[in-house]
Amino acid sequence: MVPGIVVFLLTFVTSLISAMGLVREREIGTLDQLLVAPVKKHELLIGKIIPFAVLGFIEVSVALIFAKLFYRIPIAGNLGLFFLFTAVYLFTTLGIGLLVSASARTQQQAMYLTVFLLMFFLLMSGFLFPIENMPLAMRYLSKFNPMSYLILVVREIFIKGATLRHLYTQGLALLVFGLIIFSAATLRFQSRMK
What we know:
Layout: H1 2-28, H2 30-35, H3 41-69, H4 79-103, H5 107-123, H6 136-142, H7 146-160, H8 164-192
Helix pairs in contact: 1-3, 1-4, 1-5, 1-7, 3-4, 4-5, 4-7, 4-8, 7-8
């Protein structure tokens, strides 16, 4: 359960905070002020996203320390590999936050939309219910859930000490999800900034 909680916290916090933070900036008008500054749109976007990524790494580090000290979870694998997969997964979660912030007009809308998406992620990830025990249609649907891939990766690294050669297919899936979601979110966000 603890490795799954680490993944869920990472997903929940980075998606929700990035979505609500960017919508709040639009609501109070600071985003409009930044748009007239001599900064390119992609630079502005990078400057807004990096603090949320740093927050995600800090959160994961604190969760790992807590899991190690409080629950005495042995981490059999390489922590560098874990953080590599976390970095790839952050493109997905921050992309979701960016996509939600580009679609929502208020912080309340952003919160509800993010929680709605995260409920799907949580239920279809294998965190609460094993994917193997789901009906066949749900098993296929879970393949479109990036959280399920990271939960598998984290469990394999923590429990079995898996290496990159064991996890490269999950890594490729996470990379594809991250590229698609983050690219779509960037395009949507930039079109909303015009």
